[in-house]
Amino acid sequence: MSQALIELVKQSFPDAVLESHSQLGDDTLVLAPGRWKEVCRFLKDHEQSSMNMLIDLTAVDFPNREPRFEVVAHLYSLDRGHRLRLKTRVGDRDGETVELDTIADLWGSANWLERECYDLFGVTFVGHPDLRRILLYPEFDGHPLRKDYPAERIQPLLQYRDEPNINKVAPFGPDEGMPFGRQTHKFGIEGEDDHLAPRPRVITPADN
Amino acid sequence: MEPLDQDLDASELELPTEPMLLNVGPAHPAMHGTVRIVMELSGEVIERCDVQVGYLHRGFEKMCERGNWTQVFPYADRLNYVSPMLNNVGFSLACEKLLGVTVPERCQWYRMILGEMARISDHLTCDGAMAMELGAFTPFLWMIKCREMVWEVMEEETGARMTHSFGRIGGMAAPPTDGFKDHVRAVVAHIMQVLGEVERLLLGNRIFLDRLENVGVISAEDAISLGWTGPCLRAAGVPYDVRKAHPYMKYGEVDFDVPVGTNSDSFDRFMVRIAEMRQSARIIEQCLERMPDSGPVNVDDPRIILPPKNEVYNTIEGTIQHFKIVMEGVKLPAGEVYGYTEAGNGEFGFYLVSDGSGTPYRVRIRPPCFLVTAGLERVITGQMMADVVPSFGSLNMIGGECDR
Description:
The complex is a heterodimer. In chain A, a hairpin with a 7-residue loop joins strand 3 (about 55-60) and strand 4. Chain A contains three helices and nine strands. Chain A is an alpha/beta fold. Chain A has two domains: about 5-125, NADH:ubiquinone oxidoreductase Nqo5 subunit (Beta Polymerase, domain 2), CATH 3.30.460.80; about 160-200, no CATH class. By secondary structure, chain B is α+β, with helices and mostly antiparallel strands. Chain B has 18 helices and eight strands. In chain B, the strands form three sheets. Chain B has a three-stranded antiparallel beta sheet with strand order 1-2-3. In chain B, a hairpin with a 2-residue loop joins strand 6 and strand 7 (about 345-355). Chains A and B meet through strand 3 and helix 3 of A and strand 1, strand 3, helix 2, helix 9 and strand 6 of B.
């Protein structure tokens, strides 16, 4: 059904389509990473495709390939009822610089899906409005869905944070990880507020 | 009546206007599952908010890459733990799409009946919890009692109330029990009766209506752009249902309607779920009539389905088959596939990548909840703080599915 769509993209962007296939009823286009956003916008706006839904966006890690990551998006058109799978290959073999243009300004769903992809695979989406970890915490070390991340690896314990005025706080709180700045409270007048601030209990040898 | 905070112009009041940060969750009784909302409040109105998920992240997609394909079923159970049978069937269908096999007719009807029962239990939970959060405790108890009856059917069929792990690649773990049809008929009839009573109890209630109507509104364009599917999208007036748009199993042959909303508010989402339960009952009735009482449930393929036990113990072929399937796993051909079904909360997809060995190379779960929760920020920004709870409840966020 989407065969005509593949032909349409091939005609409009002859140099952007690396390969295409239709396997088990799923039509797939593999795009050059540099043209990713351009083709996505075309598919969204063109009357014949009118892909108004980004159903899914994820990545697959092939550590022995160069480029290493395959970013996979599934598009769906509610008006026309057809689907298309888009793929692109990004990243060098050591996985240090993995970059792709964001499509969060085309579909709202891309915002969280790209954040998840960044979180679990370390794919950086250039131009994303709010690229933070989403399922894991900010201090998490590594990207767990990469094939070179061992499943039994244990993450280090988190240290308490040093905060001015409050000495030490737990590594979570009402303002952790928000997109809109940090609100700090000052207790009383400078220099006279020490008695208000909670202090960590220090055990001295005399206590024992 | 005094004007609400919303209607007052803050500049006229000469009050201090420093925004207040409020942190709701992750372990808050009104937050289904574990989600955390950080809100910046001006008075009682939410000016900005940040929805944080991931507190129930258990790394399912990573764990799926460690076993064989059949060992994914217990993980699929624990995604949407209110309707695990739909997840089981969804994963079976994705694997069967990659294998290119179709299960026998009896199994398809059986899966549809169990799936629709699971959908009823999903919607009962969501609507019951919504009512309870607004102070209506009685409908909650009635609906949870009905859900318990659904789970009794499940227990009789599968041996487990919630996490059945009952699906198999190419069939089901066991054929239907003898009294299955009568049991389902009795339970569904009772649930339909209770639904009517719940409607009579709630839909004439001023408090219930005022708290839901025109609250939590989202436009259809926004909902589509955010990738919403399922009851939440249909409440926005978009009649997209995978069962209708891309029929799988026997959904093309049964007669049912797709209820849609008009206002896209919390009340529409509540009513769409009520209407869908009635449609599920219609589907179940037709399935029960057409499901054959005898015949095979599993595909006849020794590479996929475990042989019967007496063959395993008495013939060398049976022993070898059993050994190969248990030790190496069902070998899905190399390739990739996206299988999608309509689960309780919308389009539930599996993007499977197989390298031809018995172990999954990548199992991507496309959770409907994740994207619905992504839209929560847009739904509650500009609303009163007190409306967060019913709006959030109407989205039916399930932590296990959202965070995986």
